């Protein structure tokens, strides 16, 4: 009897240990997320760490052996929409998303562990301007947390895919009022921070915080000031209530400063002739406290924007040596064509240089932080027909750049497309009403139809390229940099590529089944380095650019993992 | 005197259905997309109505958004249907060679 009791106690102790181990293996605490960049075996935070640098210290795959990279598995995601998500990798499991499902996959075999589908009302698509997509999830304390297109946030058990909590963004967030959610959440200091899309449908953009454990809505901070708030005088009458300024691309976080950095989108409507003033804080970088949503500082890149130059590109954190001193900065390759470097503590502008062809401004005044507008810009505001570079798609769009601290360079997929532009007599706006492309006239201008984009290696402080690799169509994939001085990226016609970070020379390419808009990541398991990316054409450029180079690219979302051939 | 739980349930259910029907009637945004109807209207205009097709092509070539031009050239009822099917219409106009730019 005594022996039986002892055996039972041992069993209980063993079960408790296993349960504890299992829980800790799945727990991704705030500290784990902070240390993501120091633990390259896993990929826990959007952008491969809170800095958003998309840089890995892994070097097993290098310039000498990258030609031996082979696909180890491909996994069909059973969807024909754009595959733009950032894959999370934790303990041998890859978690990824499409608009209608979240999937857990065995990282070494490609076999599905679980798949949770998500439904949304069909009318949701009406306010999805730029592709039926989702850009990924966050992981926190054993939960996979993502946004749904119809403005819900959902947390799933990482082991089973079962719902842990689900929250609806409070009113007036609705499809009827022009809101949708396509971006990945960012968990910062225990708070799920999410943004919204919809500036093309006369909404009023914001950021929100939810308790990561319970899904409780904690705060909402509008990106556009309300009545009585500082900056509301940069809007005419009540137009701030339908003024756009969405937040559809994920930001970054500095745990030491406890600041989240997030970019905001275009003012609504695109047509500037209904607006008066700078339209704060559209096209801006905002620094805020994740626990409360309190604005700490903001900087507007494109005041009174007529050209849809969203400032949503992820503000990347780094420490740069400036005038002999290490300085914490945030960097943004802005859609308007300037590369901004700001002091991360206070938003002071440190550098702003064009990284491609720009004709609407001659530069940015470092003292005032304002553009040095050209006659092109003034004529556009006056309703004249002008030719302007870049086009509404931007010099880059949402596709993320990466930073290699070793080379000191940013690797940016850019567009080389201009436009004619004319803003006719505008119409009044109401919430939910289209306020984007239909409010202006535009045609595409190309210098060379066979070069619509470049992958550029850019000095952040000068905007100058060390090298530029031309592409027939612009790459909508993000880039990934490694300490072995490789740059990985995808091509809209499906090639997944590795280039020499020092020279831009193409070192390796593999044809995936569809176009790549995905975000490559690299990770390690059992001493071996892997690279993972999603393939699946869709998104705004494929849908709306009319690029003839993409006419024969088949749809179909899949995820691929590559490793060195070692058999 | 109390109502049974089932009669309360059916009463609430009827009220909810009534509210949903009313909302669907007054709220075109919440209406379902009838894309076959929209597609047919687009095809008829572009392929069988030379005058309106020429105007459509001319305005789109001059830089106007293809969805906005299409909405302006059809009846108000069809323009509402296009608005509800905005995304599907964009996809189809792109296939027909008139991508609504962004």
Indicate the proportion of strand residues of chain B: under 5%
Helical content band of chain B: over 70%
Number of helices of chain B: 6
Largest interchain contact: A-B, 33 and 28 residues
Count the strands of chain B?
0
**Main β sheet profile of chain B:** none
H/E element sequence of chain B: HHHHHH
- Detail the poorly predicted runs of chain B: 1-29
Rg of chain A (CA only): 23 Å
Q: Mean pLDDT score of chain B, rounded? A: 78
Task: Please give the count of helices of chain A.
Answer: 4
Poorly predicted parts of chain A? 12-24
* CA-based shape of chain A: globular
The class by helix and strand makeup of chain B works out as mainly alpha
Portion of residues within helices of chain A? under 10%
Oligomeric state: heterodimer
Largest sheet: number of strands, sense, barrel closure of chain A? 5 strands, mixed
Strand count of chain A: 38
Structural class by sheet pairing and helices of chain A: mainly beta
Describe the strand arrangement of the main beta sheet of chain A, using strand numbers.
1-32-33-34-35
Which features characterize this protein?
heterodimer, A: 567 residues, mainly beta, five-stranded mixed β-sheet, four-stranded antiparallel β-sheet, 38 strands, B: 102 residues, 0% strand, disordered N terminus
Topology:
The complex is a heterodimer of chains A (567) and B (102).
Chain A: H1 2-26, H2 30-34, E1 55-56, E2 69-76, E3 88-90, E4 93-98, E5 101-106, E6 112-117, E7 138-140, E8 143-148, E9 152-157, E10 163-168, E11 186-188, E12 191-195, E13 206-211, E14 217-222, E15 252-254, E16 259-263, E17 284-288, E18 295-300, E19 316-322, E20 325-333, E21 338-343, E22 349-354, E23 361-364, E24 371-373, H3 375-381, E25 386-388, E26 402-404, E27 409-415, E28 418-422, E29 441-445, E30 453-458, E31 465-471, E32 480-482, E33 486-490, E34 495-500, E35 506-511, E36 521-525, E37 528-535, H4 539-544, E38 558-564
Chain B: H1 5-26, H2 35-48, H3 50-61, H4 66-73, H5 76-84, H6 86-95
Helix pairs in contact in B: 2-3, 3-4, 4-5
């Amino acid at each position: 009897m005594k022996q039986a009791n002892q055996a039972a106690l041992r069993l209980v102790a063993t079960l408790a240990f296993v349960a504890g181990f299992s829980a800790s293996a799945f727990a991704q605490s705030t500290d784990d997320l902070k240390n993501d960049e120091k633990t390259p075996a896993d990929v826990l935070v959007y952008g491969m760490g809170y800095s958003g640098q998309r840089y890995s210290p892994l070097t097993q795959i290098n310039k000498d052996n990258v030609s031996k990279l082979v696909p180890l598995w491909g996994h069909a995601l059973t969807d024909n929409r754009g595959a733009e998500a950032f894959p999370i990798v934790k303990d041998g499991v890859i978690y990824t998303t499409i608009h209608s499902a979240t999937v857990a996959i065995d990282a070494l075999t490609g076999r599905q562990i679980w798949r949770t589908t998500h439904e949304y009302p069909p009318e949701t698509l009406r306010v999805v301007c730029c592709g039926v997509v989702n850009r990924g999830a966050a992981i926190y304390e054993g939960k996979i947390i993502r946004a749904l297109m119809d403005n819900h946030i959902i947390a799933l058990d990482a082991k089973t895919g079962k719902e842990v909590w689900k929250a609806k963004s409070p009113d007036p967030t609705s499809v009827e009022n022009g809101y949708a959610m396509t971006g990945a959440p960012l968990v910062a200091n225990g708070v799920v921070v999410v943004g919204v899309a919809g500036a093309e449908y006369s909404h009023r953009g914001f950021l929100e915080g939810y308790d990561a454990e319970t899904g409780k809505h904690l705060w909402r901070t509008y990106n556009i000031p309300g009545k009585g708030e500082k900056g509301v005088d940069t809007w005419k009458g009540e137009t701030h209530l339908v003024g756009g300024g969405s937040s559809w691309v994920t930001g970054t976080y500095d745990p030491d400063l406890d600041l989240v950095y997030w970019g905001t989108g275009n003012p609504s409507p695109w047509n500037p002739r209904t607006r008066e003033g700078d339209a704060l804080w559209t096209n801006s970088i905002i620094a805020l406290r994740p626990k409360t949503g309190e604005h700490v500082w903001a900087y507007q890149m494109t005041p009174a924007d007529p050209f849809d130059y969203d400032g949503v590109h992820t503000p990347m954190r780094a420490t740069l040596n400036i005038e002999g001193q290490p300085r914490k900065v945030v960097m943004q390759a802005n859609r308007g064509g300037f590369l901004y470097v700001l002091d991360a503590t206070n938003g002071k502008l440190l550098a702003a240089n064009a990284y491609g062809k720009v004709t609407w401004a001659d530069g940015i005044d470092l003292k005032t932080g304002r553009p040095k507008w050209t006659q092109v810009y003034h004529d556009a505001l006056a309703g004249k027909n002008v030719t302007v570079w870049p086009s509404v798609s931007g010099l880059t769009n949402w596709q993320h750049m990466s930073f290699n601290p070793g080379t000191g360079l940013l690797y940016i997929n850019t567009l080389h497309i201009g436009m004619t532009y004319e803003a006719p007599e505008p119409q009044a706006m109401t919430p939910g009403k289209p306020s984007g492309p239909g409010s202006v006239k535009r045609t595409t201008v190309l210098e060379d139809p066979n070069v619509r984009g470049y992958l550029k290696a850019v000095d952040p402080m000068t905007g100058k390229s060390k090298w530029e690799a031309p592409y027939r169509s612009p790459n909508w994939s993000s880039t990934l940099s490694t300490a072995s001085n490789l740059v990985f990226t995808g091509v809209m016609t499906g090639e997944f590529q590795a280039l020499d970070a020092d020279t831009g020379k193409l070192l390796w390419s593999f044809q995936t089944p569809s176009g790549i808009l995905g975000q490559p990541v690299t990770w390690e398991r059992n001493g071996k380095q892997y690279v993972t990316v999603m393939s699946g054409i869709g998104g705004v450029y494929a849908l709306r650019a009319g690029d003839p180079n993409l006419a024969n690219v088949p749809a179909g979302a899949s995820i691929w993992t590559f490793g060195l051939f070692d058999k | 005197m109390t109502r049974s739980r089932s009669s309360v349930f059916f009463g609430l259910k009827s009220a909810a259905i009534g509210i949903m029907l009313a909302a669907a009637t007054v709220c075109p945004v919440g209406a379902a997309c009838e894309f076959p109807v929209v597609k047919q209207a687009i095809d008829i205009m572009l392929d069988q109505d030379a005058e309106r097709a020429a105007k459509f092509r001319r305005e789109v070539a001059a830089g106007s958004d293809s969805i906005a031009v299409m909405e302006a050239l059809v009846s108000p009822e069809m323009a509402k249907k296009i608005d509800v099917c905005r995304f599907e219409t964009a996809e189809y106009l792109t296939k027909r060679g008139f991508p609504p730019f962004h």
